[in-house]
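Open question from group meeting: does this chain pack into something compact, or does most of it stay loose? Before anyone orders reagents, we agreed to write out a predicted structure and look at it together. Recording both the input and the output here so the notebook holds the full record.
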Amino acid sequence: MLITQCKHELRQLAADRLLYALMVLFAVLIGYGLWNGERWVRFQEQAIAAAHQEEATAVMRAKQQAERIRLGQEKPRWWSSSTDLRGFLWYHLVSYAAKPPAPLAALAIGQSDLYPYLLKVDTGAKAGFTTAYETANPTKLLLGPFDLAFVIIYLLPLFIVALSCDLLAGERESGVLSLLAAQPVSLLRIVLSKIGFRFGFILLLMGGLLSAVFALTGLDSSAPDLLWRLLGWFGVVAAYAMFWFFLAMLVIACGARSATNALALAALWLVAVVLVPAGVNLWITTAYPLPSRTEYVKTLRDTGDEIFEQEAQTTERFFADHPRIAVAKGRGRRVADRRDGTRPEA
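Structure tokens returned:
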């Protein structure tokens, strides 16, 4: 009986032309979402590779200058000399802190377009962290990227609603449910078999589409634990789809018409996917607001100015207590100015 019912469900789905249109649309959305995520990952990898190349070029230039200084071909000041630790840190050193994308980063861009994945470590800038963000359209950043995670979270439930809204109501209206009820099978088993068949159809469709897109876009198979990561991600997607099929089964059990079921499931989608996350986000931002960026920059600059002022006061008191060192330092500066051909200070 179960095999016969599965064959009937397969024939019923195969005869539905709307299902083919939804499958094609769903495949296009999955492909575009994964392609967009893959493009963003490639952009990050290229930016990180360029940063590493800049680091290597800076080190090579410092070595070349050190060799010229050793041969006596160049006599730079301390602040631009690669043989002086202060000059190397201030003038030559280029260092980046990078967060490379994970093996499955193409599946979900998330907020990686908001937060910096590459930061230049600067020992001299007071507010370097404030300029670490790339310039982008704020409306685009607010809406977020279109990736595979967006398709799964927002569009997969709608696809499940389209498959399940007339699960029993359509057969009741056509009279097929009466024939099924005449068989020695309970109504609960009929509903479960229909839900299970559609759930398996969704999993096969997702697995086939993802395999095809992965084969076309390419995936780093040398990444550690890639298979287990893929299985874990697919398990989360399966659990998410099962949750929506469970909601569909609860709505169908009320015995309403197809249009009523579709409206109820659409309302549940609106609440679960849009309203509840927006409410939680609003509560978090209200209860734990982020510090002001302007106040952060102002505090950082005020703190830096206070440190420089304390340093100047400490130096002034030290030279006041040790006048001989101050005189010797002044003489050495005048001698260095004469050697350079500059005018000595008064």
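Observations to bring back to the group:
The chain has twelve helices and two strands.
Residues 292-346 form one domain.
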